[in-house]
Structures are given as C-alpha cells and as structure tokens.
Amino acid sequence: MSEDLRSVYSRAPEIFQRLRKEIDKVIVGQDRAIEQLLVSIIAGGHALLESNPGLAKTLLVKTTASCMGLDFSRIQCTPDLMPADITGTTIIDEIGGGKKFRFEPGPVFSNIVLADEINRASPKTQSALLEAMQEKQVTVSNKTYALDRPFFILATQNPIEMEGTFPLPEAQLDRFLLKIFMEYPTMDEELEILERYTIRAEPKVSPQVSKEEVIALQQLCRDIPIADDLKRAVVNLVLATRNWDGVQYGASPRASIGLILSAKARAFLLGRNYVSKEDLHVMAYPVLRHRIILGFEAERKGLTRDQVVGDILKSLSL
Q1: Alpha-carbon span 87 to 132, nearest angstrom
Q2: 77-87, pLDDT tens digit by residue?
Q3: What is the spatial distance between Cα 202 and Cα 183, in angstroms, rounded to a whole number?
Q4: DSSP character for 186?
Q5: Per residue in 231-248, pLDDT tens?
Q6: Gap between the Cα atoms of 165 and 79, Å rounded
Q7: Reduced to 3 states, what is the DSSP secondary structure of residue 247?
Q8: Is it the case that residue 30 has pLDDT exceeding 80?
Q9: Are 103 and 144 a contacting pair, CB within 8 Å?
Q10: Alpha-carbon distances, residue 79 vs 59, 123, 236 (angstroms)
Q11: How far is it, in rounded angstroms, from Cα 79 to Cα 255?
Q12: Residues in Cβ contact with 230 at an 8 Å cutoff, skipping those fewer than 6 apart
C-alpha cells in the first residue's frame, strides 16, 4: 500500500463522518438512502433512486456532489431529449477562412451526472448512457473520448407517473449497482424539514473530500477482505434467484460482483475492515431488486421483488 493510500485509510472514518454530518445539514432523515448512495459511490457504481415526488431525490444527489467537491452536471430528461444533448456533438469552426471540426462535450463529461427522471427520456436517448455507464467512455463521430474518473450516473425516477415515460430496459437497469428507495419522512422529520426550509436562509454545504481521496477510497474498498463462506453465500443467493418460484428471470453474475463490492463498501463506511453477514443481508435488497423479473402469476398476487429477496435470504439463513 502506498503512503498516500495509507494516509487516506487512516483518515477514512473521519472523512465518512464529515460527509454524513455535512449531508445531514440539508437532508432530514433518509438514513438508509444516504448510506446506500455513499456505498454506491465508494464501490464505484451507478445508482438509481426511486420514490414518489417531493422526497428529495434530486436534492440528495446535488448535496452529495457538493460535499464531495466533484464536477457535477444535471440532465433533465424529457421525451424530446436527444443523445447528442447528453454525449456532446462535433461542430464546425471557421478559422482563418478554413473549417475545422471541434468536439463540444456534453453534460456526461462530469464526475457525477444526475439523470433526473431518466424514465422520461426516449429509449434512443437512454441507450446513449449505456457506453458511458459500462465503459466510462463516449463515442461520437467514430471517435472515442474517455470520461474523467471518478464517474457516476445517479439517476432518479418516479414510479407513479406512467404517462409520457419509457421504462428502462433490463440491460440498462443491470448497469446500476443499486436501486435505492426513498421513504416518506416521519412526523418529527417532517417538522424538522419545515423548520429548515420555511426560513429565509436555506442550509448550505461545503466540500469535505477531494477527487483524489474519492479515488483512493474506491481502491481501498476493494481491499476489504471477505471470507470464502460469504462468497459462496453470495453465489448461492444469486443462483437461487434463477430458480425461485415466481421469478421469471433471475440475476446475472454482475449481481454477485455488485453484492460483494457493496458489502465491502458498507463495511468500510461503517468502520470495519471485514465483511459481515449483516452487510450481505442489508445490501442484497438494493443490489437485487432491479435485477430479477417476476412472472405474471407472482405479479398478479401482488408479490414484490423485495419480498422475493427477503424469502430467499430467509431460506439461506442470511
């Protein structure tokens, strides 16, 4: 381990504490969603946030980006949004009587990209994000441009509005490390929201971690050890989703990778240098809920994907 990594490792608990404290200045409650979003970033994966309107999905992403001091851009997805509006386009400059092609980067060329209401974008535009999410690069006019690291797509969607939306295809859903649900606040939390956001000055945040420290934390996350029996438990869990009653299509090996990385990130975030069974249990829901497809009969009975994940975890004593 290099001296720089040792320094970041020794300061990791303090860094995570400062991040949570700063985010909590703006976001009231939502502890589980905040933890899972930080897990996604530490693990180096993309996240899809889903909730009813008004529960601070966009605010959480913007606040987290501000606390991390990373380049941030927002894409407001609409049905008329074109792929070039995301990736950028090649334009012609007239210089000294001649013409020269120049690439104008789009908003995807940031460290954190918020794809707000991603399910409102057309399938053609949604697919423009696939290469960026998987390969960390963009191809325009037969030229490939590498994206700056770290790079995250943090997307939001509203599950209750169906008019004018285009559900994400399974191939794109699988690129998201986590699908994060945000819940309604409690009465005390909602009163605190009123206290903070009905006065003249709204809460502000400042960067608590540098780009280099984020990259170092991602490298250190992968060094967190995990026992062989827990690795086998992860494989058994993912295999079970492919044969479980009511599940039409189970999770892919990408889910196994994602679950181990997420469990490592959660252990690191909570100050442990090992992965526990609890980490796997907690992270199984956001890792698997968007990667399994229920059959018609299960949906007719009102069975949810989280219920299926819970039943499988119980059957495997995880």
Answers
A1: 9
A2: 989 999 889 99
A3: 22
A4: -
A5: 999 999 999 999 998 899
A6: 8
A7: strand
A8: yes
A9: no
A10: 23, 9, 40
A11: 30
A12: 263, 275, 277, 280
Say if CB 287 and CB 245 are below 8 A apart. no
Closest CA to 291 of 190, 185, 191, 170: 170
- Measured between alpha carbons, how far is 131 from 142 in angstroms, rounded to an integer? 13
**H or E stretch at 308:** helix 305-315
Interacting residues of 69 by C-beta distance below 8 A, sequence separation 6+: 207, 208, 209, 210, 211
The 3-state secondary structure of 128-140 reads HHHHHHHHCEEEE
Please give the Cα distance from 279 to 266 (Å, whole number): 7
Mean pLDDT of all residues in the chain?
A: 90
Q: Where do the DSSP E strands lie in 175-228?
A: 176-181
Cβ contact 119:166 at 8 Å = yes
Of 104, 106, 102, the C-alpha closest to 85 is: 106
Amino acid identity for residue 88 in this structure: G
> pLDDT tens digits, residue range 180-217?
999 999 999 999 999 988 887 778 899 999 999 999 99
Residue with tokens 């608590």: 208
Measure the CA–CA gap between 193 and 67, rounded to whole angstroms: 20
Q: Residue 101: left if φ>0, alpha if ψ -120 to 50, beta else—which one?
A: beta
**Bond into 150 cis (ω within 30):** yes
Distances (CA, A) of 113 to 58, 71, 73, 199, 202: 11, 9, 5, 30, 24
List Cα–Cα distances, 89 to 71, 102, 106, 126, in angstroms: 20, 8, 7, 17
